[in-house]
């Protein structure tokens, strides 16, 4: 089967370090593993090419526009160009990661399509960036969702957002996953336990609360932060002011994640209070990676996290550094409890969160036999 994987979002490099890039790569890997011939059509190729995807065919339609209105129009034009190229190349299935203004699935209505929706992008763009033509964005999403054989949503809040545009029977929740072969348990490092955060350093990840928690700690532990982003300098200043030693690792290639998780004792996901359940719509890749690595997880009790971690983690109120510190301290002081949670975490990852199972469910829901 010839699969055209489409990502028109210029903010997501196919070969990049952010979670969305990991998501793209893992879905492509699973399609390839099923014997599909995959071609990726994207506006941003990226440069962090993993060895196992070095031969992947990627067709890039780069966007040069910077001004918001021109950039939106450029995405529309890129969508049209991708549609024309897929027509030329041929495809038996179009798998598209939802992006603003793209209408590839709708414009290739005679080819079965799967639309994967990872976030309420229209509201995201309005709140965090700049959306010029909301009507065009809404129109594109409605067309896409109406034509797609299945609309795959990474969480129930995302599905609720989509439901006004597509019959309920074709909108499904399939959470994100993790590569169980790439991420495996490793021994804790000697010395003080290492508490690790993975993610982009932006406000909605709550890393400032994590640094404050480290300052509140009554036990001795090392804080490791894997990732980069616009808050990096502010977090470094905050850590220095609070006297907290932080091992900032910066952005890393997905293939390097096992090396940077090595030695960790605890994984943390300190999401802040964003003001309502609908705002916590994520399906957290970092948490699935922690579980696959066999790490006990301390996380905010928001979104899907209570369901994910009910038997393999510790939940704390969001935006509560003192409670976060207390939960981490308790695990640091109890190696036996950590060992118990390590075994449970890996088992839960294997039973519930592998990418292989997630992609199989997506294809089944769309009625597609890949191969």
Automatic annotation (TrEMBL):
The keyword Lipoprotein does not apply. It comes from the Bacteria. Residues 19-182 form the Glycosyltransferase subfamily 4-like N-terminal domain. Coiled coil: none annotated. One of its GO terms (molecular function) is glycosyltransferase activity. Keywords: Glycosyltransferase, Transferase. PANTHER family: D-INOSITOL 3-PHOSPHATE GLYCOSYLTRANSFERASE (PTHR12526:SF510), GLYCOSYLTRANSFERASE (PTHR12526). This is Glycosyltransferase family 1 protein. It comes from Arachnia propionica.
């Amino acid at each position: 089967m010839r699969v055209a994987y489409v990502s028109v979002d210029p903010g997501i490099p196919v070969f990049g370090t952010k979670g969305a890039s990991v998501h793209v790569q893992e879905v492509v890997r699973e399609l390839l593993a099923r014997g599909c011939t995959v071609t990726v059509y994207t506006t941003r190729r990226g440069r962090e090419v993993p060895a196992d995807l070095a031969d992947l065919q990627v067709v890039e339609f780069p966007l040069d526009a910077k001004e918001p209105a021109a950039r939106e129009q450029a995405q529309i034009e890129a969508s049209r160009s991708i549609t024309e190229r897929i027509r030329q190349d041929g495809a038996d299935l179009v798998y598209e990661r939802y992006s603003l203004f793209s209408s590839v699935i709708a414009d290739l209505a005679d080819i079965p399509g799967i639309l994967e929706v990872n976030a309420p992008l229209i509201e995201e763009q309005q709140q965090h960036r700049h959306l010029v033509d909301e009507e065009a964005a809404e129109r594109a999403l409605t067309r896409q969702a109406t034509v797609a054989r299945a609309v795959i949503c990474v969480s129930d809040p995302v599905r609720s957002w989509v439901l006004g545009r597509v019959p309920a029977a074709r909108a499904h929740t399939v959470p994100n996953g993790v590569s169980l072969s790439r991420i495996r348990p490793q021994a804790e490092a000697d010395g003080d336990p290492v508490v690790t955060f993975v993610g982009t350093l932006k406000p909605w990840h709550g890393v400032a609360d994590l640094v404050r928690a480290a300052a509140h700690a009554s036990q001795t532990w090392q804080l490791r932060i894997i990732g980069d982003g616009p808050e990096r300098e502010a977090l470094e200043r905050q850590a220095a002011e609070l006297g907290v030693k932080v091992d900032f690792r910066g952005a890393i290639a997905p293939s390097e994640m096992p090396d940077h998780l090595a030695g960790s004792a605890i994984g943390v996901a300190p999401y802040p209070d964003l003001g309502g359940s609908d705002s916590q719509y994520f399906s957290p890749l970092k948490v699935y990676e922690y579980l696959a690595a066999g790490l006990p997880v301390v996380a905010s009790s928001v979104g899907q996290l209570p369901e994910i971690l009910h038997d393999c983690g510790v939940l704390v109120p969001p935006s509560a550094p003192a409670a976060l510190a207390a939960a981490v301290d308790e695990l640091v002081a109890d190696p036996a409890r950590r060992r118990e949670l390590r075994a449970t975490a890996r088992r839960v990852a294997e039973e519930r969160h592998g990418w292989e199972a997630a992609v199989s469910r997506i294809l089944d829901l769309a009625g597609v036999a890949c191969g």
